[in-house]
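Before the break, one more example. Copy the sequence into your notebook; we will annotate it together after we see the structure.
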Amino acid sequence: MVNLNQSKEFRLKVSTRITTALSILVSAEAWMPSGFFLSGVPTDRSSSVGCNKKPPSKISTPLHANRKRSAAAILCTLAAVLLAPGQQLPPLTPPRPAFSFPQKQTLSYAVDWRVFPAGTAVLHFEQSGNLERISANADTIGAINLLFHVNDRFQSTFDREHGCTTEFDKQTVEGRRQVNSTLKLDYPDSKSILDEKNLVNGQTKHVETPLPGCLTDLLSGVYYASSQPMEVGKSFVLSVADPLRPVLVTMKVEAREEIKTPLGVFKTIRVQPTAEAGVVKNRGNIWIWYTDDDRHLPVQMRARLFWGTITFRLTANENK
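Here is what the structure looks like once it is written out:
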């Protein structure tokens, strides 16, 4: 158990790691989650998207970042867990027959680090013609919020029929750091376009990279997985958009389990996002529990890393 009366330096270290882990839920991601940048963690805090300015020659150890890493950094950590270099990306598989994304839905999660309440995450889904729009909020609470304030906002838009993401936006406020970014996927011109601005120092970044085909993104990936068949003992893959290059995530369907959340008891299917080439060694583990029905609603997520376990539990499911 952590003594919160320890030094300010230690408390800041712990609080930052807890708050950045809130992004696991809206990553995937798949992650995850979610979910999925290139190897390593950025040491340049003016950058919030992409883990290296140049592709590394090998996967680097992700947890060597400074103590005030951002929410984007935890996604990089997860990506190092999930991504093997040099993989060929298959096309994104369309949703299974008869599956439909919600016309309007709001999911709320409580976030715990070990035994401590750490934050909340709220996701809203809404249909807009043939597109699905997802917005997500991740916030610290209680003592953690007093030590290190996090107020992150994410938005994603994708094609309901094929799952192809068209845009992924982030507005992050983490301590003194404030960064906005937009990632657009231009399928007609086969390129992704990243625009980013640091609201504190005014620095901007513009990056364009080749786009091989239909991709999901960090936010919608974990929920897009709900549209895929889940059979225990089998796996499916997700091709995920990244500003530098697309990445591949394999979802291993491991077992059926009954779990309890603040919203009730659910029969679920446990899925572990992983890499096909066995990169998951000494990197931690991530699991997602989807309801064992046609909805495949993600009711619990867990990331077990060396500094502790982060758990997301569903607290509300509303049609609004």
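The chain has one domain: 8-318. The first strand starts at residue 104 and ends at 113. Try to locate both features in your own notes.
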